[in-house]
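Reader question, answered in our methods column.
A reader sent in the components of a multi-part assembly and asked whether the whole thing could be modeled at once rather than chain by chain. We filled in our standard form and ran it. Here is what they sent:
COMPLEX SIZE: two components
ENTRIES:
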Amino acid sequence: MHKYTYFEDFRVGETVEIGRHEISEAEILDFAGKYDPQPFHNDPERAKSSIYGGLIASGWQTCAIAMRVLCDGYLNGAASMGSPGMEEIRWMKPVRPGDTLIIKRTIEEARPTSKPDRGLVLSRTDVYNQRGEHVMMMRGYGLFGRAPVASPAAGGSAG
Amino acid sequence: MHKYTYFEDFRVGETVEIGRHEISEAEILDFAGKYDPQPFHNDPERAKSSIYGGLIASGWQTCAIAMRVLCDGYLNGAASMGSPGMEEIRWMKPVRPGDTLIIKRTIEEARPTSKPDRGLVLSRTDVYNQRGEHVMMMRGYGLFGRAPVASPAAGGSAG
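And here is the structure of the entire assembly that came back:
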């Protein structure tokens, strides 16, 4: 089990693999049916005659799966307070049924904010498939709580 | 029914309301359980003690709902060929159960690509809630097929 992650724990420049996820055709169709019902995302037959030559996942689903892997990998053991936004997303290669997505995170920046209890972390998420192809990249900010400061008395012989 | 939309049909500078969607607590919990299981997205009780004071939708779900509204509103009646990426996303205000999301689209740029059969359209999507608050903004590119060119013989008296 990793230790709980506060703003102070991020190391600028560090790249780590956070986790992996194999995407099934059923997952692609479930997401597309709810959120992105374009034929190349939600209809295996019609997808064959699209420019993609077969079913591909919605780019939003690739973002969402990366998010899930980030939650399981560290965010749910961190002082995560949400995000004000993303700086860019690039969908470079199609994601197809049966692909294994490998999610890596690089910390690009970490700075305090005007609120003393939190800091802003800019991270880059790179997604590769099982053939090593770079399928997606996204960069965005996250807010993280700061580590509690030990009080002067803490650890000392207060009485 | 709208006419089928090709690259040539986009008007730079035009803003239109594409559609609306009321988001339920069940939808928020369904998405968060699969893709963004942070306590303020997937646990109504724990969300109360977060900085948001109650359950809020994942920002990725707001993107996904906007995508669905865009599909229903025009993309599925257009020569849509997918997207290479997004230039920015801003999550400005929380989205809460029962909110009605109003999706507006502005065309910022439309230009041909090196491939003669398609063009690139930069559009901005603004999402407001039922109180008129601007909750999200995203800007990104979409690829669209070009309108078929009538052959010289078409419409003439060829025989």
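What stands out: Chain B has a mean pLDDT of 93. Residues 68 and 81 of chain B are 16 Å apart (CA to CA).
Send us your own complexes using the same form.
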